[in-house]
Amino acid sequence: LPKETGIQTVSVDFEWYRPLWKNQLLALKLHAARVQGKGLQLTDHVWFGGARTLRGYRENQFHGETVAWLNLEYRFLMGRNSRIFVFNDWGFFHSKENGTVRENILPAYGIGIRFDSPLGVMAIDFGLGKGDSFSTGKIHFGIENNF
After folding, report:
1. Which residues pair with 121 in a beta bridge?
2. DSSP H or E stretch at residue 121
């Protein structure tokens, strides 16, 4: 008889922006996800960490059946697509692997810049994760496109 398998995934994204003073803005982004089912494999988990999720950590460094991350930025706007900002990111994961429960709360903070380039909006962030010193911080590069 074939094994019955099924995977259910639910995720929620929330963004909130609050202008404060001239050319200054507070931005909050929250993402939460849960995957469940019989016979989940490691590849079925939600993976996160890095430039677009939890800055200050390596790309896809963390995973779990339940994950969440929060990005908080204080932005200084310099133009339509240009800004300098400080950020504070928080991540969480929970998973069960081989009967062992793993979970952790992950703080990060740093600075970033966005500016126009011929390829699109260039993104450069420098983040420090849990236990990092300045020399072990992570630099994240990317290109953002708006359609």
Report:
1. 116, 144
2. strand 120-129
Report the amino acid identity of residue 138. K
Cβ atoms 23, 77 nearer than 8 A: yes
Whole-structure pTM value? 0.86
Q: Which residues contact 118 (CB under 8 A, 6 or more apart)?
A: none
Neighbours of 69 (CB within 10 A): 23
Closest by CA position to 96, among listed 53, 43, 32, 42: 42
Mean pLDDT value across the chain: 92
**Region label for 44, one of left (φ > 0), alpha (ψ between -120 and 50) or beta (otherwise):** alpha
87 contacts 111 by C-beta, under 8 angstroms? yes
DSSP state, residue 53: S
Q: Residue 71 has which token pair? A: 């990005």
Closest CA to 70 of 124, 110, 15, 3: 15
Q: Which two tokens stand for residue 4?
A: 């019955």
The mean pLDDT of 122-136, rounded to a whole number, is 94
